[in-house]
Structures are given as C-alpha cells and as structure tokens.
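note to self: dont lose this again. the chain is below, predicted strucutre after it. 257 aa total, dont forget to put it in the shared folder this time
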Amino acid sequence: MKLSFKNIEKEFSTLRVIDEFSRDIADGELVALVGPSGCGKSTLLHMAAGLETPTRGQVLVDGATVRGPHPERTLMFQENALYPWLTLAQNVALALEFQGSDKAAALKQAAFWLAKVQLQGFEQYYPHQVSGGMRQRAALARAFISHPKALLLDEPFGALDALTRMTLQDVLRQLIREAGPTVLLVTHDVDEALFLADRILVFSARPATVLKEFNLVHHEKTHDLSEFAAMRREILGLLGIHAEAGETAAQPEEIEA
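---
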C-alpha cells in the first residue's frame, strides 16, 4: 500500500501545526518520523489512519483520497489499549470479530499470533496479570492479526524500559519482514528509528517542516548502531540535542528536505 501526503497543512483553530508537507511512502517501506513533541508527527499518523483531515492538501492511499478509518490501515498507540475484562486471546481476537469473523475462528487465529510474539501459554491471562512488555506484545499481535496493508505506529514502545523496548523492536522487525506492510513510525527514540527505518524524516518544531531526510534502506542493522554514529549525532543536533563527541562512523545517504 502506497501512502501519499500532498501539500499537507494542518491548523487547529489559530494554531498552525503542519506546514506544506509532501512525501510518498512506498509499498512495504518503513518510514520513521522524528521531531520535537507537539510538532505534528502524530497528527500526520492520524491523517493516514483517517482520524484527522488536513486543513489543506490530500492524504492518498494507492491514489485514492483517505476519507475515514479502514481495517487495511491499523493504528497502534503507546498505550496498549487492551480491555481489562478480556483475556489476552479475547483482546487479540476482537480485531477479527469487529470485521465479522466467527468468534471461535478469531480465537484460533489469536492463539496463533500470540505464539508469534512469544506469548504461548498466556492466552487466558488478563492484562493486569502480565507485564507491560507482555501487554505490548499482545497489542502487536492484535495489530497484525487482520493483516493490515499499512501499519501506523505512534510511539509503540515509548512506555517500556530500554531492554524490553529493544526486545520488542526485534519482534516487530521480524513481523514486518514476514507480513510486509507499509509502516509509518512516530518515535522520539533516535536509536529505534535508526534500527527499524528505511528512511528517517527529521521534523522542525511547530509548525512542522522536514529539516532533513536520511536513507538507510541498503544497510543491514543490529542493535550495535556504531556504524550510524555520525548520522545519530546529526539527527540529535537537528533536534537541538548534543551527542557525545569523538564518535566516528560511515555516513549513510542523506537527502536534503
């Protein structure tokens, strides 16, 4: 699924949030949006999901204007949003039940996807009985169970500790490789963007414009991101954060905004 943002501007009353944003997200591409809090990253995500409309411009999906939410575009938030009165399996199955699937068939698929995120044996547990990382694994299973063509991730691991976050980044990357959706990721974690993304767009403070675009598509990555130290320093610098001096690394391709 190709996502296209054409001359997007967004205002909330007199507050201008996004200023002239245009980009295409290719089918199967993972693009990370990085920038200061409140600069409009999540607003772009909500536009792609059909939950917000631009003040000016168009959001397109495979050439058609987005006019509302659709099951082919799944939005996942930082909060796992699991229903506390349902088991993990019931929570995951709900995504299929909302689309008209039979409950028994949906629960069978839920067990399959919980196993894919290493939660086999926890199907009948309730959200309060498992850790935050396990709840987010269940949220990942729910996001993938309906086989979305576009996955819209809004700080999905922002509330987790560093070790759990890296573990779930590995899980997410494997699920993306297997399922192949187009992914738009909003994150404040520069290392997460470097590890997961094919491209990174660095945004200015509000009203948001793209300061710089970085292309990482030809780089195989691990959590040892030393190869990207120079890029990391530059991104942090664009965000007004000073990285430690003395790091050297190969410089991936950069694209001026």
